[in-house]
Amino acid sequence: MNIKILELTKDKVRLLVPGEGHTFMNVLTEEILADPDVDVAKYLIKFQFSDPELLVTTNGKKEPLQAIADACRRISHTCDELLGSVGKQKEKPGN
Hints:
Helix content: 40-55%
Radius of gyration: 16 Å
Largest sheet: 4 strands, antiparallel
Shape: globular
Number of helices: 2
CATH class: Alpha Beta
CATH superfamily: RNA polymerase, RBP11-like subunit
Distance between the termini: 37 Å
Strand content: 15-25%
Strand order of the largest sheet: 1-2-4-3
Structural class: alpha+beta
Number of domains: 1
Number of strands: 4
Mean pLDDT: 93
């Protein structure tokens, strides 16, 4: 994924996330907002086939790109747990 940073300051980032839609962007913004150092996390898809623009602001205790990276790690960890659970269910006799 090749993101494009449109604006970056100590406590704010605006970036484009090519090829993603509402499904991923909803999950990402909700996970970013779980961080207590994040003030705002929202996205905008201006046109039906345009790349989403993500805006994240923090309270200054954490850089916004770090907040995004941390959220992505948490999402990945949750997906790994789900995949592990699904794999265990497939291995049980009678399934």
